[in-house]
Amino acid sequence: MASALTGRASQDRRGATRFVPGARALPGRARLKHGPEVAVVDLSTTGVLIEGRCRLRPGGAAGICLDLANGEETFPCRVVRCHVFAVNGREGVCYRAALAFERPLALNFDAGGGE
């Protein structure tokens, strides 16, 4: 059983290179359209991984507003998954959600910082 779990954990499902905030001029914060501010964990041309206090429904539609070099832009997306990431007695529950963009972003991430 342990080897089966280990084998799954080692598979990388990423279809596009992820970029983390701080390594480049990527937004570290964003907000959900008509919703609260969230932290950007990583970003690619196909999706974004976020953290925040808002629970999102997998399969549901969402919009993410990113603060880019040319101003704030809103991108339609779908919630791929959402789970409890941390529980803190003072701050409550923190969720981590993966959002897939409806269309790949036409942003240039070539200058490094990828994982």
Description:
There is one protein chain. The protein has a 6-stranded antiparallel beta barrel with strand order 1-2-3-6-5-4. A hairpin with a 3-residue loop joins strand 2 (37-43) and strand 3 (47-52). It is mainly beta. The longest helix has 9 residues, at 2-10. The radius of gyration is 15 Å and the shape is globular. It has 1 helix and 6 strands. It has one helix spanning 2-10; strands at residues 29-32, 37-43, 47-52, 61-68, 71-88, 92-101. The chain has a single domain, classed as predicted glycosyltransferase like domains (Thrombin, subunit H), CATH 2.40.10.220.
Secondary structure topology:
Layout: H1 2-10, E1 29-32, E2 37-43, E3 47-52, E4 61-68, E5 71-88, E6 92-101
Antiparallel strand pairs: 1-2, 1-4, 2-3, 3-6, 4-5, 5-6
Distance between the termini: 29 Å
From the alpha-carbon coordinates, what is the Rg to the nearest angstrom? 15 Å
At the fourth CATH level, what is the homologous superfamily?
predicted glycosyltransferase like domains
Order of helices and strands: HEEEEEE
Q: Biggest sheet: strands, sense, closure? A: 6 strands, antiparallel, barrel
- Provide the β-strand percentage band: over 45%
Side-by-side strand order of the widest sheet? 1-2-3-6-5-4
| Domains (count) | 1
Overall number of strands: 6
Classified by CATH, the class is: Mainly Beta
Q: Estimate the mean pLDDT confidence.
A: 78
- The rough form would be described as globular
